[in-house]
Amino acid sequence: MLRAETDIAAELGDALSLAFGMFWEILWALILGFAISAAVQAVVSKSEMRRLLPDDSPRSLGIACGLGAATSSCSYAAVAMARSVFRKGGDFTAAMVFEFASTNLVIELGIVMAVLLGWQFTLAEFLGGPLMIVILALLFRRFLTRRIVAEARAQADRGLLGSMEGHVEMDMSVTGGSIWERLRSPKGFTAVANYFVMDWAAIWKDIFGGLLIAGALAAWVPHSFWESLFFVDHPTLAKLWGPLIGPLVAVVSFVCSIGNVPLAAVLWNGGISFGGVIAFIFADLIVLPILNIYRKYYGLRVAGFLLVTFYAAMVGAALVVEVAFQAAGLVPEERNAKIVEASVTWNYTTVLNIIFLAIAAVLVWRFVRTGGLPMLRMMEKPMSEHT
User: Fold this and answer.
1) What distance in Å separates the CA atoms of residue 266 and residue 215, rounded to the nearest whole number?
2) SS3 (DSSP) at 265
3) CB-based contacts of 358, cutoff 8 Å, min separation 6
4) Is the separation of the CB atoms in 242 and 230 below 8 Å?
5) 3-state SS assignment for residue 53
């Protein structure tokens, strides 16, 4: 009995050690990414986002991509924001494109991917993301009917709650003057601090959940299981199978946004194809909790439509990425994603973590000093419920 308890404790220790090791590797990158995202949000008005997406023209979809890339990477906030755009008269396709861009084209995602997986994956994400959006727009143009849109709008107007409703409604952006003048102003500094802290509050569960799950999978799941699941012994089949299975693994992982990256590192080391990793990361918008939010927001039939079209766009883009990167010789030959046991040594990672933790402390201090704490309690529910 004592031996069994000791073994369990050792296994838990291994999982936690791996989770902390990955966290320590990406901490500075997370702070940098969220700080840049907060600065962008501080000068980009949410009301302007809604106004600029009236239809599904190439111009509107391009604007949707740009605005999405400029927002928080929280998948739940992106889904809530997309519904807000749609309810206020925005085009349904443009709203979904905004949603895709806000979780797949944000800078913090690319930085963390580069740290854990390598620059090739970051490049694939930022080339494959727009391709996925193009495929989605074409699928919507072919299969999205007026009846589906009408059903979605009728259900959306019921106003059923999802997640991060209050966070989406808060608009603290600063106007007037140049971008640099706005950021340097006291109001701009406060806005950056507010967005930085609230974005962390919105997404920390996904980040730490992803790290814990990744640590557990890396410590407990034998390598042979991954090799069998991903058809490692059949290279050609594996390249086709990876983009197909990657999103399905993501669906049942319950982790989305940046929290998917540590899991992707485990899958890559386990043998999934290059395109499979990209498809897995793309699939943060079809995990089970978000599918349930689609059901609340737009109805069951529309939720099913979104699942099928999103999955097709993710798989299609990932397959193209797989073929193109293989042809260009850009797929890494070694599977050495950073999955390391806990170790804090005096190296460049520690120095960067100290620097960026100091920056984070300044932003948190500003947030607290300017009365930001009450906003944390207002993130989940619509602003109308707080009045």
Assistant:
1) 8
2) helix
3) none
4) yes
5) coil
Say which amino acid occupies 328. A
pLDDT, one tens digit per residue, over 294-353 is: 999 999 999 999 999 999 999 999 999 999 999 999 999 888 877 665 567 778 889 999
Q: Contact at 8 Å (CB) between 109 and 35?
A: no
- DSSP assignment string, 94-133: HHHHHHHHHHHS-HHHHHHHHHHT-HHHHHHHHHHHHHHH
How many Å apart are CA 32 and CA 333, to the nearest integer?
A: 29
Each residue's pLDDT tens digit, 131-142: 999 999 999 999
Task: Provide the whole-model pTM.
Answer: 0.85
Of the candidates 47, 79, 66, 76, the residue with the CA atom closest to the CA atom of residue 105? 66
- Measuring CA to CA, how many Å separate 29 from each of 24, 114, 265? 10, 9, 16
Query: DSSP secondary structure string, 7-32?
Result: HHHHHHHHHHHHHHHHHHHHHHHHHH
What is the amino acid identity at position 138?
L
Length of the chain: 387
Tokens found for residue 310: 């999103």
Q: Is 114 exposed, middle or buried (0-12, 13-18, 19+ CB in 10 A)?
A: middle
Give the chain's radius of gyration (CA, Å).
Answer: 21
H-run or E-run covering 154:
helix 146-156
